[in-house]
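Tokens help. Our protein:
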Amino acid sequence: MRRLLAVLLLTFMVVNTPAQTRTGGTLPAGYWPLERSAPIIEKTGETRLAPDLSHLGAGERAAVGKLLEVGRVFQSLYERQRHAQAERAASTLAALEGPAAANLATLYRLFQGPIATTLENRREPFMPVDPPQPGKNVYPWKVQKEELESFLAANPARRDEILDPRTVVRRSTADDGRADLDALARHPGLALLHPGLRERLQATVARPDPKGFYAVPYAVAYADQMVLAHNLLREAADAVQAEDAEFAGYLRNRARDLLTNDYESGDASWVTGRFRHLNAQIGAYETYDDELYGVKAFYSLSLMATRRQESEELRKAMRGLQALEESLPYDRHKRVKEDISVGAYDVIADFGQSRGGNTATILPNDALISRRYGRTIMMRVNIMRDRDIFAGVDRAWEAAVADAHKDELSADGNFYRTLWHEVGHYLGVDRTRDGRDLDAALQDAADLLEEMKADLVSLYVAPTLRKQDYYTDASLRAVYASGVNRVLQNNRPRRDQPYNTMQLMQWNYYLENGLLSFDRSTRRLSINYGKYHEVVGNLLREVLKVQADGDKAAAERFVERYTKWDEDLHGAVAANIRAQQRYRFRLFKYAALGE
């Protein structure tokens, strides 16, 4: 993949004795040889996304080119956010040759940095860099949470600044302060958009405190990249103005957002807009990569082509959301906008946090913005309905369940469960009873609980949708089968994997309450559909309560209770799944990028 940032000089070369590869080539010490990378490469499938863009106008095509450039900026930035040595690692890796080096370049692309996930679900560096850190590179590298907690206890007024979703946390050193002042000097307009920041940085330089911390907005921490992205978005907006004025307006608002660090104008025009042929998710939204506090957002860009007819059909189906909200098993129901924005799309290219097999998204996450303007749901149809991807899912399903259930899963079941999962994010608890944001209250437990809530809402409302003839009996069964398939694991999850952790929790709850049962003779699972709605409703009630209470300790106890792993049960099903999986990982390539 082309890198936008300049390639650094090879200051990272390791001078230890090279290690021999099977091909007779050499790699410096600390780089995985061929025998380490080959098993992962062999288990990696490839999907190339090449949607038809012939219907785009000339201005839209020009805008696509500019947005792809923004995506490249965000891709490099995302890798930098995740690992402090990512840029240097990419540079040195690009200078190496041979089959072993080619494998490592594929791993870098697949895992978006120098840390691989092994077949045993461990995260390990495949080249000589530091191991992964919970705070990634949006906090001081290798900082311990205890250090930050001690600082925040002594400086409670700084908590909002430090834990803001779009700030980078620094140590209060003169060097860091000067580097941020240099960014303001290179881009004087940023000082006007962030009044008082220059003076605070000057104070840090004058009175450094190595035990203290401060935070700077992403707009300043990544000033060069944000100014470049701003300019490219403005150029894209100018290109598309004559053909889609609303999309152009969104791009201009988002360009400004990247410099102000305030996304309201862009989000408002995004979720309420009705765009012609294109849509794009642009910015830092999701917090899954932050394992320290679970609050920092990471950059992504998804450029998509609209499937107009399917989008219109989905929008017509999004009616009666207030009644569904009031049916959920919790009190203090909120008012929701009935006219929710939803669309079916073909992915043109994904970058950063959204790259990979992402099937659907609902954004923005900010509760206040959502109440004011609503949210937008983007269904990535050319990923969800890809035949090769679903064939792999279907093989794993058949390996995990009793013969009676083998034909119950379908691509449509996955599609509609995923659609209503995204709607599930829109419904239910969005703040604690005492008014706190869920991310701030529940920290690293917030994402997994929110994802589990959305899963459960999609299944809980299914009988109501059946009564409305939205589902047939067969499609309801397929949605239910998809809900079970969703929770099955092919390896024991790590606690830092929010999706996999909440899926294991559901799996255990379903086993404990009789929705699922395990036959130790066949080593497969059976589903009791008669218990489905009751069991899902009871678990949803518990999740909504934990969210509303906002008690971090109680949330951790809840997670601990339902993340048990029994090798004779979970391990047996996981082994069945692995035995049928042709691929464990999937590398996505994009025709629009010339891949």
